[in-house]
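Progress narrative, work stream C.
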Amino acid sequence: MLIKLRNLEKPIATKTGPLYLLRQIHLDVEEGEFLTIMGPSGAGKSTLLSIIGLYDNSWEGEYHLFEQAVHRLPPKQRAALNKRHVGFVFQQFHLLEDLTVAENLDIPLSYREVKKAERQAIVADTLDRFNMVGKKDLFPSQLSGGQQQLVAVARALVAKPTLILADEPTGNLHTDQGRELMELFKKLNDAGTTIIQVTHNEAWAAYGRRILRLRDGWMAK
């Protein structure tokens, strides 16, 4: 089992007591799955994805990833797991503004201690794959929203992660680009990469093999 969540909950403190963004989440994700998370705004979709991706350390319950008890790991070890295994496509890009496109793609590879010459070759191949060779020396602010999203996707995939998490990955892409991205995800999944995506789009959701629906922080029956 790649991911096992048991009674996962996400409280935030308010003046009147804790407010729960997630309640009693029980979820198993097998290696090689393609899971879609759906639900209305405020349902807890992005919160759940952030916890699975080890970006949020403030939650309750049990979380096993690669048979490691994440809930027992200190933040430093959780961060190491993230860098080694997770590729995340953020809704708001999260590109580093003071780095070029090529330098943004290099970052995940440097985390995995890939040698510089090999990193340069991998970045070059990725730029070519996404038709971005001509934009490699540009900064994010010089790109359109759709181009920034493609860079964000390329950065998530460049180090060939075991687990890809995508939060509304097609949100800033036109329909044809969105379909190309989903086809790319399907190929990666067919080759064994586990993918969990959040989307409102029923057509993109259908690329997944299973749909998890959330409502007000609860798993919908």
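Work stream C, second folded protein:
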Amino acid sequence: MYINVIGAGLAGCEAAMQIAKRGVKVRLYEMKPAKKTPAHHTDYFGELVCSNSLKAMRIESAAGLLKEEMRRLDSFLIKCADKCRVPAGGALAVDRDIFSKLVTEGIKSNPNIEVISQEVVQIPDDTITVIATGPLTSEPLSKAVRKSVGDALSFFDAAAPIVTAESVDMDYAFCASRYERGGEDDYINCPMNKEEYEIFYQALVGAERAPLHDFDVSNPKVYEGCMPVEVLAQRGEGTLRFGPMKPVGLVNPRTGHRPWAVLQMRKENSAGTMYNLVGFQTNLKFHEQKRVFSLIPALHNAEFVRYGVMHRNTFICSPKVLDADYSVKENKELFFAGQITGVEGYMESACSGIVAGINAYRTLMNMDTLVFPTETMIGALSGYISDPTVSKFQPMGANFGVLPELENRPRDKKERGAKYSQRALLALDKFLVDNSEV
């Protein structure tokens, strides 16, 4: 007996490990290294494309709650992330190269997982299958998916540039975490005064963008969570100052005052030799990225080791197609996991892989599949993507808005988050006790 898993990204690797640790053989199909998507650069599994941050660690936050739930489900990727953390204030950020190497080594060394390096162009029908091919599913398989479950939707994701640490002019920058959370050197902050910001803003909104090759751009959609900074800026001059360049929680030690605007940069690797521009996903032409971003005083001599890129993201209309166990309504031996289902974010993708993997195994064993409590973040996300009442389906990341409303909802935001998380973890613990075979 075996189960197919297609795709060795975050969701596919979690699904494969959940199945394998239960003693069932996995055939894990991955088209690397023979073929890569436009956004991927290495041959490793679990490659992080947009950012090296897995978001907040605080359990009282939605992202932190999700990761704690995953820990309690023995998440393989969380274990890998913990081994290669880089300082990032209150966030869990990783050295992305080490992270992907750890993921790849863990998968390839598992005796129950057979890695098959080939592109899958049709949905297999030889056994239970989990499709976790991600937002950049190859065109042949995309066609097979559309034929099987209906039209897919496409939108675009964008990645941020990376610069060398030594090229940042620290005469203009300072190290600090927002509201002094985390270590003093977790972020490099590049402040700007009002005049500097206005010059930068005008250059940004007028800069030339790169063409979107190989994609259907007749009606592209851009998800808010990965909105290119130049698109965001077009909404108004103050938009960036309330978004990726917000100065709140930061004081420039040279002036003693809060900057007018600030770009934060986070360590890209554990050695701290590279930094990524937080929130600066972009589709500007490479020379325009160099010209415009160098207008930020601390980056006037910045050396870019990777420029930002924009790439296609594909997801199925899950409310019409999937049940909350991530199986297809019309084919209970076919599961989907990851961003192709409409969960948005690294850990969101990974958690869907956990659930799909568990349920693929249970289906093989002729056991009832599991639907996690809606009070949990994992259960709420699976509930959202399978909710038939959602008429205008768009990708969704972890947030407290997807959870059922609290009784006696606290007005204080932090207290409210703590209550949501406390309720979620109690519900998850009870669920795991009631389903001890999980």
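The longest strand covers residues 152-158. No further action is required on this item.
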